[in-house]
């Protein structure tokens, strides 16, 4: 029997996907905040992509000023609550905590952050509001971390903002792509509702922008267009048999899991292809959904995996097994997936080479491809003058997020190629400032 | 080595160890005192007896520090509210069951006759000693008792004399710290014929103010009153007063040390400064009588390691080293050393020295380990005190120990600064930065966070200043 039983109800699903960073109670927040040393030029701040003044908000929590703490967090990062839960804090703020050098447990910054912001959200604390209207309008494409963060910042600067979202919920991968044990849908959406209530931007759901005609309409009605479009579906592997049923992309699998919970079908024997953080998530999730045998297959050695160590540990902790130095050559089966044919590999001078004659078939009834997401090049090709780099990322000014078409700005995965929520959120804040700078300069 | 002997004979009061419960709520009843003796306490000073009082509800307030509770504690409770006869009966019962433990009756009454009566009563009940409560700083003092007596040496002496007229057991006078010179009432106690003194009683205090109700703690129906402060936070004040009495040539009485004693270390500190018994209240109210096990075991271990056979081997052992400021060696020189291998890079030492001391620590590019600027370091200790890592910053001696010069000697030699701009001023020619060098210094570090950077970029559109005026 597997470590986890396949969940058949919401409570069972939530039990299998218990939050790895559960909410702190007031006592725990007091104890934990009391431990903070209030470092000078604190390394945690420098390690945070959004530069949250962490010692300040921890001190605010410690003195009973939780609302002030939430303000400190949101001033730097509009996804304050989500980031507290989904950030890889082990390699960011908490990884930089000086306690690590003393071999003392670092401050649980992420959980403290969520403690403060969640209280503000639940009590609907009015911390921010739109700035005085300046008569200018910005269209935001994509209601993910980048788009929503840009919208918040632009509203605070007095812009009218319309957000166009292809799906029916905001927050992008936060609600569609993050592992369910990192954050619940309810928690994500509560923060989104809170921000929308604070700033008053408009989100138009189920309104994908995909044609030149739609872009032209936006160009005609808005001063600037912000691209927060993220990435597309999972890359195809170009392998024979990839079309067989039960061979799915990780992004698609996780999206279904986040939306349909225990109604998501998972095989008994699952092979996950890939060595990045998404692969770790997908493997963990398959195991928590009750799969008896989950194998993580990666074409290089264990040390070369892109995933953070703690993510791999998390997967191992739920029974996932690693299979290294193997490259898939075919998805075998008869209509449905029945196995993956691998060839063994060896790495020589950084180059992965296959070992001739080492082919074998690993049986399974589900394959999850966690092999990266495609870029949205089709849409981007419709924007005149917009340049992409050789990896398909939008070329933009580092500070302002302005693209090679001056009326388009961007940040988030579409620009950085795929990073954390915190990166998208903080880059979008900067881009909104860039938009403001641009429109202030071009004022008639 | 034989186990050290913890027993004491305090002014004639014998006790198996020096740890007594102070006169307070933990000694309100025979039940509590028996339980304490059972747990290992050596003695107990009974909750003050007199004409029974009426107390308010809501009696205690706490001073918390971060997540630590009751770092300081205050109360507005009065003396015993139980009939004297009940207390006397229970004292008798405790003494029958624990003949070798110390039971001391704390007393507070007004007239000479009352004093005579109650002293006789508690003697007849079998008390080993008497403690006169001249210290309570709330409620009772407004009725001419407690600290009202302790603050008037002449009155104190008179009452002690009344007590001594009938006392056949040792008499301890408990002193209030709410006075400018604690040795004055101590000497009055001696003149009156007392056998010993105990100190300190609680310090008049307001322990905190409720920010929503605009009233001091503890709150009684929306109002509050000053109370008596005690607990770990008062230990330094108590230690100083114990030392003052122990060093004064005209006091010369055994001292029972009270104030902030929670563990064996606190007790040893009191003893090293001259106490030969110690009394505990707040810690027992916080953690219960069980703390005595740690106290006796710690004291025993310490005595073994130091080779002390009895408590008296250590009483007052630190007193010769407590001097007046003018007798300290001005030639002694320490400076700070940061032990790089232990440093975790919190830079608290840097900011503490920079803002709170003498700008004697600098930061260097490429490392979080700060560097001591030897020439600027006055050896104040601050960096070593704020450093969160044990032994990471040490204060190391720099003079060779061959020279000795005190303020007193300099005064005698006529080499002390005497004018406002005297060349002999200690800080003359000591480097200090120009005032304006402070402006914008390391602003990106002292006001960190992206939010501030955006606020700046909106106006200046320039990156944050780096190390302006700094030493990087």
UniProtKB/TrEMBL annotation, chain A:
Domain FAD/NAD(P)-binding intervals: 137-428
An example molecular function term from Gene Ontology annotations: iron-sulfur cluster binding
Pfam family, one: Fer4_20
Annotated Dihydroprymidine dehydrogenase domain residues: 15-123
The protein's name in its UniProt record: 4Fe-4S ferredoxin-type domain-containing protein
Native source organism of the sequence: Hymenobacter elongatus
Lineage, top ranks: Bacteria, Pseudomonadati, Bacteroidota, Cytophagia, Cytophagales
């Amino acid at each position: 029997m597997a470590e986890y039983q396949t969940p058949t109800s919401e409570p069972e699903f939530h039990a299998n996907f218990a939050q790895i960073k559960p909410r702190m109670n007031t006592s725990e927040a007091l104890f934990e905040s009391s431990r903070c040393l209030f470092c000078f030029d604190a390394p945690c701040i420098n390690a945070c992509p959004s530069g949250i003044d962490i010692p300040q908000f921890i001190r605010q929590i410690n003195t009973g000023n939780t609302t002030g703490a939430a303000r400190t967090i949101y001033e730097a990062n509009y996804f304050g609550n989500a980031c507290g839960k989904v950030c890889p804090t082990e390699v960011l703020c908490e990884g930089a905590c000086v306690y690590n050098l003393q071999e003392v447990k670092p401050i649980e910054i992420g959980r403290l952050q969520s403690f403060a912001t969640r209280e503000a959200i639940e009590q609907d604390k009015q911390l921010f509001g739109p700035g005085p209207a300046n008569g200018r309008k910005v269209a935001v494409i994509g209601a993910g971390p980048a788009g929503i963060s840009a919208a918040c910042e632009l509203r605070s600067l007095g812009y009218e903002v319309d957000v166009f979202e292809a799906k029916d919920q905001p927050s992008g991968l936060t609600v569609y792509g993050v592992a369910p044990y990192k954050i619940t849908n309810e928690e994500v959406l509560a923060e989104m509702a809170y921000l929308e209530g604070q700033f008053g931007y408009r989100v138009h759901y189920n309104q994908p922008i995909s044609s030149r005609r739609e872009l032209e309409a936006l160009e005609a009605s808005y001063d600037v267009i912000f691209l927060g479009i993220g990435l597309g579906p999972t890359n195809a592997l170009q392998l024979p048999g990839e079309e067989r049923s039960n061979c799915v992309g990780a992004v698609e699998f996780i999206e279904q899991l986040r939306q349909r919970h225990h109604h998501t079908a998972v095989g008994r024997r699952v092979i996950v292809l890939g060595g990045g953080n998404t692969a770790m998530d997908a493997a963990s999730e398959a195991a928590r959904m009750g799969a008896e045998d989950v194998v993580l297959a990666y074409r290089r050695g264990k040390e070369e995996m892109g995933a953070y160590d703690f993510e791999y540990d998390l997967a191992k902790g739920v029974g996932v097994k690693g299979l290294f130095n193997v490259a898939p050559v075919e998805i075998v089966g008869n209509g449905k997936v029945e196995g993956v044919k691998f060839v063994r590999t060896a790495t020589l001078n950084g180059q992965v080479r296959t070992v001739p004659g080492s082919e074998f078939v690993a049986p399974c009834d589900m394959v999850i491809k966690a092999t990266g997401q495609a870029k949205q090049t089709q849409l981007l090709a419709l924007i005149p003058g917009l340049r992409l780099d050789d990896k398909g990322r939008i070329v933009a000014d580092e500070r302002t997020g302005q693209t090679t078409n001056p009326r388009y700005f961007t940040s988030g995965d579409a620009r950085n190629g795929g990073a954390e929520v915190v990166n998208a959120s903080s880059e979008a804040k900067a881009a909104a400032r860039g938009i403001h700078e641009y429109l202030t300069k071009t004022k008639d | 080595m034989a186990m050290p002997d913890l027993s004491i004979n305090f002014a004639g009061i014998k006790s198996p160890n020096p740890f007594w419960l102070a006169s307070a709520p933990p000694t309100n009843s025979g039940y509590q005192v028996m339980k304490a003796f059972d747990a290992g306490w050596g003695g107990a000073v009974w909750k003050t007896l007199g004409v029974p009082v009426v107390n308010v509800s809501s009696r205690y307030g706490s001073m918390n520090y971060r997540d630590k509770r009751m770092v300081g504690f205050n109360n507005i409770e009065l003396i015993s509210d139980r009939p004297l006869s009940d207390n006397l009966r229970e004292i008798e019962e405790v003494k029958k069951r624990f003949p070798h433990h110390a039971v001391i009756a704390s007393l507070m009454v007004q007239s000479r006759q009352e004093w005579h009566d109650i002293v006789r009563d508690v003697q007849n009940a079998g008390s080993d000693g008497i403690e006169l409560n001249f210290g309570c700083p709330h409620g009772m003092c407004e009725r001419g008792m407690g600290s009202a007596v302790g603050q008037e040496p002449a009155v104190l002496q008179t009452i002690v004399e009344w007590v001594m007229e009938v006392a056949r057991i040792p008499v301890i006078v408990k002193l209030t710290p709410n006075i400018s010179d604690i040795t004055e009432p101590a000497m009055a106690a001696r003149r009156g014929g007392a056998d010993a003194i105990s100190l300190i009683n609680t310090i008049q205090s307001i322990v905190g103010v409720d920010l929503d109700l605009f009233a001091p703690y503890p709150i009684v129906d929306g109002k509050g009153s000053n109370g008596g402060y005690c607990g770990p936070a008062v230990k330094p004040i108590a230690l100083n007063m114990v030392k003052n009495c122990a060093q004064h040539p005209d006091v010369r009485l055994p001292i029972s040390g009270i104030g902030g004693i929670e563990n064996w270390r606190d007790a040893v500190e009191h003893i090293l400064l001259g106490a030969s018994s110690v009394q505990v209240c707040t810690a027992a109210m916080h953690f219960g009588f069980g703390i005595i096990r740690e106290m006796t075991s710690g004291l025993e271990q310490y005595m073994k390691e130091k080779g002390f056979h009895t408590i008296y081997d250590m009483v007052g052992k630190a007193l010769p080293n407590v001097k007046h400021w003018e007798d300290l060696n001005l030639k002694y020189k320490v400076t700070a050393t940061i032990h790089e291998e232990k440093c975790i890079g919190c830079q608290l030492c840097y900011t503490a020295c920079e803002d709170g001391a003498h700008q004697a620590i600098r930061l260097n590019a490429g490392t979080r380990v700060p560097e001591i600027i030897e020439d600027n370091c006055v050896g104040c200790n601050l960096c070593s005190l704020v450093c969160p890592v044990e032994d990471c910053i040490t204060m190391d001696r720099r003079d060779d120990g061959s020279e000795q010069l005190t303020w007193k000697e300099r005064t005698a030699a006529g080499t002390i600064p005497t004018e406002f701009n005297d060349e002999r001023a200690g800080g003359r020619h000591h480097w200090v930065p120009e005032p304006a060098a402070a402006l914008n210094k390391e602003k990106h570090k002292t006001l960190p966070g992206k939010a501030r950077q955006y606020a700046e970029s909106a106006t200046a559109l320039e990156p944050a200043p780096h190390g302006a005026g700094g030493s990087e």
